[in-house]
Amino acid sequence: MKNLHHTLGFSDQDVLTMYRYMLVARRVDERLWLLNRAGKIPFVVSCQGQEAAQVGAAFALNREKDYVAPYYRDYAFVLYWGMSIKEMMLNNFAKAEDPNSGGRQMPGHFGSKKLRMLTHSSPVTTQNPHAVGIALAAKLRGDDIVSFVTFGEGSSNQGDFHEAANFASVHKLPVIFLCENNHYAISVGLESQLACAHVSDRASGYGMFGKSFDGNDPLAAYAAVKEAVDRAHRGEGPSLLEANCYRLTPHTSDDNDMTYRTKAEVDEARKHDGVLTFADYLRDLGILTEEKEQEMEAAIRQEIDEATDYAEKAPFAKPESIYRYVYEETD
Amino acid sequence: MAVISYIDAINLAMKEEMERDDQVIIMGEDVGKRGGVFQATKGLYEEFGGSRVIDTPLAESAIVGVGIGAAMYGMRPIAEMQFSDFMLPAVNQIISEAAKIRYRSNNDWSVPLTIRAPYGGGVHGGLYHSQSMEAIFANVPGLKIVMPSTPYDVKGLLKASIRSNDPVIFYEHKRAYRLIKGEVPDADYTLAIGKASVKREGTDVTVITYGLMVHDALKAADTLKDQGISVHILDLCTVYPLDKQAIIEAAVKTGKVLLLTEDTKEGSVISEVAAIIAENCLFDLDAPIKRLAAPDVPAMPYAGPLEHEFMVQPDQVEAAIRDLAEF
Q1: Where is the Dehydrogenase E1 component domain (chain A) (predicted)?
Q2: Residues in chain B within 8 Å Cβ distance of A70
Q3: How far apart are the first and last CA of chain B?
Q4: What residues of B are labeled active site?
């Protein structure tokens, strides 16, 4: 196995960290399904199959100053960006302490001003113009940041996707649009969503840089996003990137994906699952030893156990709190 | 105190706020070199430059959505919708996003955004340059909707809207732009959003309305004064959230209430005003609540006689007040 990460400037420890975040997201996600099936949480929306793209992308951004607008599947991205497993569990149990919304929103609707992470909603792609507005304001103030936004391939058909992309390109703004193409918009496959081969093909229509990459490979994700970041800092405007992923779970815990795709198709996709293939890469290079792997799994499991226990016992927001924060509260 | 037009008051409020706070920016179609199709932003591009007075691509959802993003970064954007009729592509950004961002983030994020839009008919604008769109947004908590009637109110309320830390839709009656003139102080002042304003004290009949129709009510009141009918006029100024206390006080004052809107009748802002009065003032009323509004047809036609038929006319206002006085 050829070492692919040294040329990108990553140490062996860096790629282990990268893998760890992918694994944490996967294990958190798996736990959420168990909690849902046990009747402890009402709803799960999954990141499985997209962890590699998310963590690779996040590694290319600056966690100290960049602004991000992740969408509802970005568990791995958000964990790396600064949200703890405990906070993730508080979000999924919809408890008062959930830093995203205090239990007001469904799970996966992330947002944290402290982390410069925009608040997310359910109507898809509304976050794209917001990310453009962040970049516009930063440019006006002379702040050297990038604004990063993610969405799915189905969402890339929304008007807000096109309006945001065009606006960003006309004004040459430092925006990175990352489409996490998981090949399904609930039940509707790619062939019924796009007539072009890649979402990134649309970039040329906006006069911006476009690129597709293997969404199962965190190093490919890093390289593509890093290229877009460098372009943005050089004043070359926005980029439209596409991570080719596969949604390994049903759309949500309320979906039955066997009504529209086959088990054989999902099993085939699992062979390319980035969490597994990146582990193989690290094992082949002797970076991920059996001992390290067991240690990592045990530590993650313990942290998830503790976070789950904490979140389950944590109080809900008080019912009378629903009247608050409709408008600014003064005095 | 200078006498200036309604549109000059809009221009002046923006100019003063941009001088006062360099986080105030304007975004919209034709707002730059052209100074706006109605000239509301005239001279601002020259004074503040293209980075603060931004000609955007022709895409309303982006104008509002990008404005929301800039607001979340800490700017105070003024997003211009060229006509209120063309706001509909931006409704998702206004209702799903701007209105809910403070609430859904549990007070973490906020959207200090002002959305300006010309509304109203009587200008041969046809179906799509004449509509009153306020009712669409008037049951969306998280939004504020301001609809001033005079240059004085325009300046004070537009400044308050720009300084608001929550999203405000600021509707300007396009026929008022040059028709309505009034005294406006040179000094910096703001008026409270959410407060109605008594435009005339009276004892026989109360008229509650907003926007350009305030002037129809004032004219009718002048005429009827000579006939011994004293009219009390309450200008809502903000149509969402409504100033319930002022509405109740105005209704109780005379016990006879006429509600006016240029919008189509069903589900209009004045329907909510009628409900507030019905809930709170039953034993103070001396006549049924009367509403005068546009007919429930899709929109205002273009041809002169058809437009005339659609719009509430001053003589109808006068007759309705007289009927109530004699009830």
Answers
A1: 19-320
A2: none
A3: 42
A4: 129
- Residues A286-322 have pLDDT tens digits of 999 999 999 999 999 999 999 999 999 999 999 999 9
Instruction: Give the chain A residue nearest B72 (alpha carbons).
Output: A134
- Which of chain B's residues have a Cβ under 8 Å away from the Cβ of A129? 61-62, 64-66, 68-69, 93
For residue A328, list chain B residues with Cβ-Cβ distance below 8 A. Answer: 102, 110, 164-166
Q: How far apart are CA B285 and CA A312, in angstroms?
A: 55
State the ipTM, two decimals.
0.97
| Distance (Å) from the alpha carbon of A110 to chain B's nearest alpha carbon | 9
Question: Would you say B213 and B262 are in contact if contact means Cβ atoms under 8 Å apart?
Answer: yes
Instruction: Determine the distance from the C-alpha atom of residue A121 to the mean position of all C-alpha atoms in its chain, rounded to a whole number.
Output: 14
Determine the pLDDT at residue A331.
73
Q: Give B124 to chain A, closest Cα distance, Å.
A: 31
Give the CA distances from residue A61 to residues A64, A78, A101, in Å, rounded to whole numbers and listed in that order. 9, 12, 24
- List CB contacts (< 8 A) between A331 and chain B: none
Question: Cβ–Cβ of B62/A164 closer than 8 Å?
Answer: yes
Is the CB of residue A243 less than 8 Å from the CB of residue A179? yes
What is residue A12's predicted lDDT score, i.e. its pLDDT?
Answer: 97
Contact A101 B106 (CB under 8 A): yes
Q: Annotated catalytic, A5? A: no
What's the count of helices (H) and strands (E) in chain B, helices before strands? Answer: 13, 14
**Contact A163/B at CB under 8 A:** yes
- Enumerate domains of chain B plus CATH numbers: 2-184 (3.40.50.970), 197-326 (3.40.50.920)
Q: Which residues contact A33 (CB under 8 A, 6 or more apart)?
A: A44, A46, A249, A253
CA distance A182 to chain B (A): 25
CA distances from B124 to A161, B127, B303 (A): 35, 9, 7
**Residues shown for chain A:** 331
Q: How far is CA A266 from the centre of its chain?
A: 21
Residues B174/B177/B179/B185 CA torsion (nearest 10 deg): 150
Average pLDDT score over residue span B131-146: 98
The structure tokens listed for B189 are 């002042």
List the domain boundaries for chain A.
Answer: 6-313
Token couple for B112: 């200090």
- Residue B1 pLDDT more than 90? no
The pair of structure tokens assigned to A62 is 């600056």
Which of A241, A182, A232, A181 lies closest to A211 in space, CA to CA?
A241
Of the candidates A159, A167, A325, the beta carbon closest to that of B102 is on A325
Is B55 exposed, middle or buried (CB count within 10 Å of its CB: 0-12, 13-18, 19+)? Answer: middle
Query: Model confidence over A183-215: pLDDT tens digits?
Result: 999 999 999 999 999 999 999 999 999 999 999
Yes or no: is domain A6-313 CATH 3.40.50.970? yes
Rounded Cα–Cα distance for residues B272 and B139 (Å): 10
Q: Which residue type, as a one-letter code, is found at position B308?
A: H
Determine whether A260 is an active site residue: yes
The whole-angstrom distance between A137's CA and the closest CA on chain B is 5
Alpha-carbon span B66 to B62, nearest angstrom: 5
Query: For residue B196, what are its two tokens?
Result: 């109605």
